[in-house]
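To: structure desk
From: M.T.
Subject: fold request, one chain
Message: Could you run this one when you get a chance? Sequence is below, nothing fancy, just the single chain.
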Amino acid sequence: MPATITSTIDGLQPKTEYYIEVKAYDSYDNESNAIGTMFSTQ
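Reply: Done. Structure tokens follow.
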């Protein structure tokens, strides 16, 4: 399994729900299925 990658998302509003979706690409430019999740800011 590859190393964990983290990222910071700037400009989010407080007390707001968001949906984020992530895809990965391998060295041959093959695209993975998207994985999404909901989260809320405080």
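Reply (cont.): Residues 30 and 42 are 36 Å apart (CA to CA). Let me know if you need anything else for the meeting.
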